[in-house]
Specification:
Blueprint (H helix, E strand, L loop, with lengths): L4 H11 L4 H37 L3 E5 L9 H11 L10 E6 L11 E5 L2 H9 L4 H4 L4 E4 L3 H12 L9 E4 L2 E5 L5 E3 L2 H8 L28
């Protein structure tokens, strides 16, 4: 059997005449693989938790730019908007829950988050947001992203030229780059790190290609 870490440390110290300072580098080297294994496992767990949260949020949308009123009926407000501005025919019962996000502030219109019973309904709304360009450009609809994905989205936008930022979009909670042929290539944190290190981005394969939808005017996530 392999000796225990305690025994290995003891052997290292003894081999260095019980001088901890001299043995320190060897002791650190002993634990480095173990720490790396723990780090890799923790990263894997965090990624899985984030993906579960991402999936749970794919029933939700965030609506920005709606004037906030006292004692407002948010369900009625959202339903009326989607039916008139997006030319849909949705029932007020299509949404499971909806409410403003964050603490109230005078003169500030808080965004509205809506969770729908049906993902196809949510997708239908999101695909229709291109109609807002002519009708109501001050209102926009975005995906409900996890904190980690939102940070990646902003990092991806900041890593490209201003003229290319509209090509950075989200689809089903993932950050993607719109290609010349309108297909989508998924962006990962590793892509951003590689770019910052002035290394070629990961281009060996398109991780995820998703059919294109009608272009949207959403200037934040460019709609999904």
């Amino acid at each position: 059997n392999d000796p225990s870490p305690q025994q290995q440390i003891s052997d290292i110290v003894k081999s260095n005449d019980n001088n901890i300072s001299i043995a320190a580098e060897s002791i650190v080297s002993l634990f480095t693989p173990m720490f790396q294994t723990f780090s890799d496992r923790l990263t894997s767990i965090e990624d899985k938790v984030n993906d579960l949260e991402r999936y749970n949020r794919t029933w939700c949308l965030r609506f920005h730019g709606f004037h906030e009123e006292k004692n407002e009926n948010i369900v009625e407000k959202i339903t009326s908007f989607t039916n008139k501005q997006l030319e849909l025919k949705l029932s007020p019962t299509a949404s499971e829950n909806c409410h403003r996000i964050g603490p109230f502030k005078n003169g500030h219109n808080r965004p509205i988050i809506v969770r729908y019973f049906s993902r196809p309904t949510r997708q239908e709304i999101f695909r229709s947001t291109y109609r807002l360009k002519q009708k109501n450009p001050k209102v926009f609809i975005v995906e409900d992203l996890t904190k980690k994905t939102l940070a990646l989205f902003h990092s991806a936008r900041n890593s490209v030229e201003p003229s290319d930022r509209k090509r950075i979009v989200t689809r089903n909670g993932h950050v993607c780059r719109k290609q010349v042929d309108n297909s989508l290539r998924r962006i990962t944190a590793q892509d951003i790190v590689a770019k910052h290190q002035q290394q070629p981005p990961i281009t060996s394969e398109i991780i995820s290609v998703i059919p294109s939808v009608t272009p949207s005017t959403n200037n934040i996530h460019d709609s999904v």
